[in-house]
Amino acid sequence: MPMLQPRRLLTDSHLFFALKIAVTMVGVLLPGWLLGMTHESVILSLGVVAGAIAEPDDSLSGRIKNLLMTLGCFLIATFSVQYLYPYPPAFALGLFTSTVGFIMLGALGPRYAAISFGSLLVAIYAMLGASQAPTPWYLPLWLCLGALWYGLVSVIWLHFHPYKSLHEQLSQVYFALGRYFETKSGLFSRPTNDYPQLRHQLSVVNIGSVTSLNQVKIMLQRRLGSKVPPHLSRLLQLYLLAQEIHEKITSSHYLYERLEQEMANDAILDGFAETLEQLGQACRQLGFAILMHRSFQLTRSPRWALQALADQLQLHQQQHQHQDPLHNSLSFLHQNLNSIGELLMEAGRISGQMDAPFTEPLPPQLPRESQPDLRGLPGQFTPYSPLFRHAIRMGVCLVSGYGLLQLFPIHQGFWVLLTCLFVCQSSYTATRTRLVERIIGTLVGLLLGLGLLWLAPAIHGQLLIMGVAAILFFAQLRSNYSAAVTFITLYAVTAFGLLGVEGSTILLPRLVDTLLGGLLSYLAVTFIWPDWSFRRLPALLAGALGSTANYFTQVRHTLAGEHDALAYRIARRRAHQADCALAQAWQQILAEPKPGRRLLRLSVALTQRSHALISYVSTLGAHRQRLQLPPDNPWLQLGDEIERVLHCAVQGQQGELIHLPAPQDDSQLSPAERLLAQEMGLIAEVANELLRLSWLMAHQKETP
Q: Whole-prediction pTM value?
């Protein structure tokens, strides 16, 4: 195992990204030191930082297009600063309009949002030396050259490692699935009395799973074309397997809260807990194999656990000759876990043949990434658009920061604007979190900078410190923002010193600037069109219920023998995304001021029922191949009533509740019919509850 550690470091996406930054920084700082062009090399490094932050993930051709767009936006931003900076009123107007314009470009897609953020960042960097620049093109040229140099290194890097980021993100999917397995095993562990807390943990873990799955989908869409290399096709297969595993593990085969009272056999419950833990470890091992570009093989432990569990269930059946509902549900749950084991074995076969030619049918394609539609952009300029509200808040925040620079003698106070740019997020919760992390990181970075400045290293030593700080900044940016701020603070302190600003004179002002920028950001998200999560609950609830209803419709089509694989996968993915958006809003309400908490109990009830609903629908989807029943089955016919109630709930209207069919004699039903009756009954029960809760939400009333 120790032999793998160096390779493990190179496969870590954060360190791999930092290694690319290291190569790029050496390419600008070392020549600058050797040629005596310290100022130019520092400005180049600022361009590198902005270019790296603005870089979205994409294919090789897409990366080149993005680089050209980034350079164009950077040129516009830096030349605008250079020409308008001497005229404060015009500069303030230009800062506001450009901020709103750049942020609104994010409506075209995530890649444009990244480029827009980088453009605002490079504009603030250009403010640093706008008044001292020898010529109007000096700063734009060197900043854009830095971004260009990073872009070229990144394109070459991508040419030799085209699927590096995709391997990393796909491995995160299986790591997240492993966490879900291990969390869900707690439902079967004795003694377990805190089921609401377990449900809450499952909901939080599921957010990570769905987010990772969606990121992989976007990355695959950007790379899939008319000709798909075998390596990429097999990564697509592993993604589709992860979708199937996710559907199966998020399903609910029973009201697990009743297990402790109704299941007298501890061995069976312990067996389910152990099997879930073993399958979770297998998912983690598969994720590690994908990360390391190695083959994967399902070990004996999960297979042994599945077989031992099957033996325990068979013994239980022999001891209870009648087919009780609990045993029927646990049997289907075991079949579900067994099919997950089969999917993991299939993943092992795929991982062992990554670059081998295809001798089998190609995996089904994903829908191509939708192209940006400029015609829909004007429709986003409305107070009802969250993006527009965020753009206005950010514009006001940055202009207010610039106004402070004009009204008060804040030396090198552009850091106020940088703090606003990084801290002011689209939600109150995210802004508050960023603010705390920013202040802590800045304080630690200033203390480090003070110690290093006391040592008074030579120019080459300062360049080395600056380069290392930039590398560590990118190594921590995606995982630990507070640590990243520490290193970027150290980077800025060193850069100021190299640009002629006495380092010891900016330590306290830098902390004050951070506090001012943080205060402006907090005031902006609190008082300028605040985007409180509880206000978005009705729309999020409607989206979740509507998406789950569509998912339920696709499951019904499958049970009736009409299966459209692409439509089914799309409906399933959208249902889970909408459910997670509702769960995230609930998490944010917990951190919002007290006025937003008046609907907290209602939001908790809605989130729990929504997740329960999608879990029961997932159970039918997980067993869709085993539930091919006649269309006149009374429980299948109940689907029309369920869809009617869900659509009423989407509108927040009152409607007639679902009346369940008369109970049938279990002895006359097949195991599949028993499972269908149980799950449809649970779905109908939850749909009735959601109908009542959605009406309360529509009328902004608390739960009684």
A: 0.87
